[in-house]
Design a protein that fits this description.
The chain has 1108 residues and is of the alpha+beta class. Helices cover 47% and strands 17% of the residues. This is Phospholipid-transporting ATPase.
């Protein structure tokens, strides 16, 4: 069913013609019209062509992609333009398309189409060879199961859609507020979204319940990040006294055309009623659909609805995944179809082509159609469902969820595993480990020295603090001891104290963290942020009262990055704590209990392009303005003043596995700041090329900054990552790590996690930008032996552009590859390139929204439900709770699923081949007559009641236990070669089927005496016993359910011998003649195979049997 999107895409592709193609249609019609006038005989053809042309034009007009355009919205007036309805629709079908599409998807498969043709032919009396139910029964059963499954799945999707679309929201109107379902919202409507309520459409935030206009949102269902994001209301509307005044003002919103990028937005808010104000809008003024308001309530105006919202535009249709085993079986069924046609032709050649030979030919095809068993698809689908159920029930890997039940066998064929780093191999739990000031370094053991230096610095009276902050610390009175101290010693000591103080203060101020206070146990579940109650804060007469208000409460920090939280927690630990933060100010508590208040003048948030974040603050007591900046060493090295230690120390920290940030500052005068503010505001107001202009203004400040310190934060490894990676490597799986992190950190994690083993070298691919550079670097790498590769995303792009085949040849031969600075699209492209180049099966594992494209591109996508939310987990085929569960998922469940499905499919094919062989022998003996050997119920019962349970019980079989599979991971290497189901094993089963079918049929013909019904009794009984014995010979590990299945089937058959008097002679089956003849035939058909199996096990045992 999952191929529906592909079908739609191909249709759309057909209709995606350019303008000139579209304009050709009228000329074509004119040509047809003139031809019609010249030759009246051709009018039906012309009419038909014209009608088709009109239909084609009409279809294109209705179904062409909607043009996306920017819009201007009048505040307080819903838009009269036509925009998409604000509905979420995840259904695959509607009432009209359900049956046609489901049947189309089913009969796309060769197996089902073949049986449809066979079953339909039975309506023709001349070629009917039995009862209709013998063909239509199994086919109807398969289709009914599929249709019911699809109907239930689609109905559930419809229910979920209906539930989401009918959620009520408060819409603000001139007369009164009204509650409307989200599906009724239109562009221009003003909506109030309450706390913990989902945002129904893309909004521009106009007002919040916080006086400052701030609002926190959770975006985990949009970008996979669990941290709260700060959003700001438009200042002009936040200042209004009430919500209803929005209808009194004359204002418009200009917003850009809908885009996919959730991290950018361009718009302007303009008032036309005398105030003349114009505010620039960016992503901080928006609430995207599917976000959840986390604090207060928000009032916004709808700007994009339905299919134009960011969340829907970012929903790429996952490709429908078909397992390698399914494709192999599809190939085998085509071979079997060839065998059916070949056998029918042979019979016709022997019979002669006299009379209505085509009728006899088709009857023979029908007689031998059991060679292709329709029950194969049913058995495999039921098997897959059982494997999925087993995986979810495994107590060794709790929390595992199988979201795609069609590909569990893929887990047993993986050759390449592509993994994210942060949150997948690591815990995404940051711990501050090191502070480096250039001449001195502080680690976890010496952080108490940082605390004592801070205490010393802040124990001075406030004016002295001022002078230290201004950089004149040497002139202030020393708190370190009497003036009789040696002046040199005092100077050195004071210098270190000042530098520590400046560094810690910079770390405590340069961030986007907000403290959130949780009430004590008397009021559980109540969270109070400073933003939630600004009035209560401003009513305090002294800052100390504000602090005392919160000091009994548990303080949590909210930020968009766990790195920032780690830094602020560390500053609190050493004595300089962040106690309050709102949009315009923040407050720090010193070790001595003083409260320092800073006004926030500007914030420049971190982006993946700039790789840095900055803040301009003004110290309220002294009035000093300081610009603080922190970021990655690669960008900061060109911004800070010259030094000789930054690059070396950042490299050292990265080798220790630490994530580094460089912190710098710049003191600004009042005039400098006002000049910057004017230029910055002008750049923010520009509609065209706004991002570049704003960046240019900010960069004018980022020159010759004073380097303060380098911080090192550790991202801890997940539990049991090292042994898991070692197991997977020993299993023959090549592991690639694709991360957006810097090269040094990625390299360090690769070493510490044992992704690269101790005995292997590590080649770091130099940064290349030209074709020549790439050529030289590839030649250098070619000379390395057994060496892991580390390459950056930019260099990877260059190599793939010029030397794709050569690069992939080298990279795929590496034991491990680390790609750093990778974008989400690059990750998915790497997966697709490996699949195309090697033809091997790939698995991708990740935990964040940025891993979704990679997970969907891989043959088996595995998501980890981690700290970055559930987006990867929900998009994946398999969801696990931690990385270490991957070993058992692949080596145990992957192995068992593949081995069991291979045995099951071959046995079902054997079951069809053996009865077709018997039919061929029977027809050839009885003058090539196209008469069925077994009538009616016996044929249906053979594939169901009599053999179904033992054959399906093979899904419980296992060649080795889970413990042995994990102890000896080398066993997994054999699976990727696909030897369990190959043309070799298939033809072995064909030979077994021909031998057994021939023995049973000839034996029955030789040993029967007078009546045809005795042939049926002897041969059919021997056939059922042979099948039951063959299942027993195939089983490697017995389970009590297998024994019960064998006994149940035997019991049902014995019961049938008594009940079905039309098919069996009740007197004959009670004689000893019947018994000994059946036993002899069964023995001859099975004993040689048992002897061969015994000899093979004795002299050439498979590798797993040596360990069992």
């Amino acid at each position: 069913m999952e191929e529906v999107p592909l079908r739609i895409n191909s249709d759309e592709r057909d209709f995606e013609m350019d303008e000139c193609d579209f304009l050709l249609q009228p000329d074509h019609d004119v040509t047809i019209s003139s031809t019609r006038y010249r030759s009246t005989k051709q009018w039906p053809l012309c009419t038909c062509a014209s009608f088709c042309g009109c239909c084609h034009w009409f279809w294109r007009r209705c179904c062409r992609p909607r043009e996306l355009r920017s819009r201007t919205i009048v505040v307080g007036n819903p838009s009269t333009e036509k925009f998409p309805a604000n509905v979420i629709r995840n259904q695959k079908y509607n009432f009209v398309t359900f049956l046609p599409l489901v049947l189309f998807q089913q009969f796309k498969f060769f197996l089902n189409l073949y049986f449809l043709i066979m079953a339909t032919s039975q309506f023709i009396p001349d070629i009917r060879i039995g009862y209709l139910y013998t063909y239509w029964g199994p086919l109807t059963f398969v289709l009914t199961v599929t249709i019911c499954r699809e109907a239930v799945d689609d109905f559930r999707r419809h229910q979920r859609d209906k539930e989401v679309n009918s959620q009520k929201y408060r819409r603000l109107t001139k007369c009164r507020d009204e509650f409307v379902p989200s599906s009724k919202l239109r562009v221009g409507d003003m909506v109030i979204v309450e706390k913990d309520q989902r945002v129904p459409a893309d909004l521009v935030l106009l007002r919040t319940t916080e006086r400052s206009g701030a609002c926190f949102v959770r975006t985990d269902q949009l970008d996979g990040e669990t941290d709260w994001k700060l959003r700001l209301a438009v200042p002009a509307t936040q200042k209004l006294d009430s919500d209803n005044q929005l209808f009194d003002i004359k204002a418009t919103l200009f917003v850009e055309k809908p885009q996919r990028d959730i991290h950018s937005f361009i718009g302007t808010f303009t008032r036309h009623d005398g105030h003349g104000s114009e505010d620039a809008l960016d992503v901080e003024n928006t609430l995207w659909a599917n976000c959840v308001v986390a604090s207060g309530s928000a009032l916004g105006v709808v700007v994009y609805t339905g299919s134009e919202t960011r969340s829907v535009m970012n929903n790429s249709q996952p490709r429908s995944k078909v397992g390698l085993l399914d494709m192999e079986i599809n190939q085998l069924t085509k071979v079997l179809f060839g065998a059916v046609i070949g056998l029918a032709l042979v019979m016709m050649c022997l019979k002669g082509f006299g009379g209505p030979w085509y009728r006899y030919m088709f009857r023979f095809i029908l007689l031998f159609s059991y060679i292709i068993p329709i029950s194969l698809r049913v058995n495999l689908d039921m098997g897959k469902a059982f494997y999925s159920w087993s995986i979810q029930r495994d107590k060794e890997i709790p929390g595992t969820v199988v979201r795609s039940t069609t590909i569990p066998e893929e887990l047993g064929r993986i050759s390449y595993l592509l993994s994210d780093k942060t949150g997948t191999l690591t815990q995404n739990e940051m711990v501050f480990k090191k502070l480096h000031l250039g001449t001195v370094s502080y680690g976890t053991e010496t952080f108490d020295e940082v605390s004592s230096n801070l205490k010393a610095a802040y124990s001075q009276p406030l004016p002295s603090v001022k002078s230290v902050e201004a950089g004149g610390g040497s002139k202030s009175a020393s708190p370190l001891g009497p003036s009789g101290l040696a002046s040199g010693s005092a100077k050195v000591r004071r210098s270190e104290v000042t530098r520590v103080q400046e560094a810690v203060k910079a770390v405590a101020l340069c961030h986007n963290v907000t403290p959130v206070y949780e009430e004590d146990s008397h009021a559980p579940g109540i969270v109070n942020t400073d933003l939630d109650s600004p009035s209560s804060i401003e009513s305090q007469t002294e800052a100390d009262q504000h602090y005392s208000q919160h000091k009994q409460k548990n303080c949590l920090y909210q930020a968009s990055s766990p790195d920032e939280v780690a830094l602020v927690k560390w500053t609190e630990q050493v004595g300089l704590a962040l106690v309050r933060r709102d949009l315009v100010s923040m407050q720090l508590r010193t070790p001595s209990g003083q409260l320092l208040t800073y006004s926030i003048l500007q914030i420049f948030p971190f982006t993946s392009e700039t790789k840095r974040m900055g803040i301009i603050v003004k110290e309220n007591h002294s009035g000093e303005i300081t610009f603080y900046l922190k970021g990655a060493d690669v960008v900061m090295s060109g911004i800070v003043q010259y030094n000789d230690w930054l690059e070396e120390e950042c490299g050292n920290m990265a080798r220790e596995g630490l994530r580094t940030l460089v912190v710098a500052k710049k003191a600004l005068s009042e005039e400098q700041y006002l000049d910057f503010e004017a230029r910055y505001n002008a750049a923010r107001m520009s509609v065209s090329d706004r991002v570049a202009r704003v960046a240019a203004v900010i960069e004018s400040l980022e020159r010759e900054m004073e380097l303060l310190c380098v911080t090192g934060v550790e991202d801890r490894l997940q539990d049991r990552v090292r042994p898991t990676l070692e197991l997977l490597r020993n299993a023959g799986i090549k592991i690639w790590m694709l991360t957006g992190d810097k090269l040094e950190t990625a390299t360090c994690i690769a070493k510490s996690s044992r992704l690269v083993s101790r005995t292997q070298g590590l080649h770091i691919f130099k940064s290349v930008v030209t074709r020549t550079d790439a050529h030289l670097e590839l030649n250098t790498f070619r000379k390395k032996q057994d060496c892991a590769l580390v390459i950056s995303g930019d260099s990877l792009e260059v190599c793939l552009q010029y030397y794709q085949h050569e690069f992939l040849e080298l990279a795929c031969s590496c034991p491990a590859v680390v790609c750093c600075r990778c974008s989400p699209t690059q990750k998915a492209e790497v997966v697709r390139l490996i699949q195309r180049h090697t033809g091997k099966r790939t698995a991708a594992v990740g935990d964040g929204g940025n891993d979704v494209s990679m997970i969907q591109a891989a043959d088996a996508g595995i998501g980890i439900a981690g700290r970055e939310g559930l987006q990867a987990s929900l998009a994946a085929d398999f969801s696990i709770s931690q990385f270490s569960h991957l070993a058992r998922l692949l080596l145990v469940h992957g192995r068992h699923s593949y081995k069991r499905s291979a045995s099951l499919s071959q046995f079902v094919i054997h079951r069809g081949l053996i009865i077709s062989t018997m039919q061929a022998v029977f027809s050839s003996v009885f003058y090539f007559s196209s008469v069925p050997l077994y009538q009616g119920f016996l044929m249906v019962g053979y594939a169901t009641l009599y053999t179904m349970f033992p054959v399906f019980s093979l899904v419980l079989d296992k060649d080795v236990s889970g413990k042995i599979a994990l102890t000896y991971p080398e066993l997994y290497k054999e699976l990727s070669k696909g030897r369990s189901l190959s043309f070799k094993t298939f033809f072995m089963w064909v030979l077994i089927s021909i031998y057994q079918g021939g023995v049973i049929m000839y034996g029955a013909l030789v040993l029967f005496e007078d009546e045809f019904i005795h042939i049926v009794a002897i041969s059919f009984t021997a056939l059922i016993l042979t099948e039951l014995i063959m299942v027993a010979l195939t089983v490697r590990t017995w389970h009590y359910i297998m024994v019960l299945a064998e006994l149940l089937s035997l019991g049902l058959y014995i019961l049938s011998l008594v009940v079905l008097k039309d098919s069996f002679d009740s007197n004959f089956i009670q004689t000893t003649d019947f018994l000994w003849k059946v036993l002899v035939i069964t023995l001859v058909s099975c004993l040689p195979l048992y002897i061969l199996k015994f000899l093979r096990k004795k002299f050439s045992p498979p590798s797993y049997s040596k360990l069992s």
